[in-house]
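Milestone 3.1: sequence recovery, worked example.
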């Protein structure tokens, strides 16, 4: 007997621009995200996950990530991720 299980995923999009102050490098999402699913965009440009010099940010917790350099005031920060169930 073959059992099929429905696979569902919930993708969340968040605007974290309000957290940018020109100094802060650690940002917090509203929801916990599944490891490896976070995608960050600064002012519309997708950032590369990984440590410097080739990467721009690292996931550091279930709902936090850290940029290698603090985003500048005036930049827009948008993230998307799969919610951890």
């Amino acid at each position: 007997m073959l059992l099929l299980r429905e696979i569902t995923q919930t993708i969340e999009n968040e605007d974290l621009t309000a957290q940018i102050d020109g100094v802060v490098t650690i940002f917090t999402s509203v929801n916990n995200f599944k490891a490896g699913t976070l995608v960050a965009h600064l002012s519309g440009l997708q950032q590369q996950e990984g440590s410097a010099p080739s990467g721009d940010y690292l996931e550091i917790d279930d709902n936090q990530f850290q940029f290698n350099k603090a985003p500048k005031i005036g930049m827009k920060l948008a993230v998307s991720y799969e919610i951890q169930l």
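Residues 11-82 form one domain. The chain has a mean pLDDT of 92.
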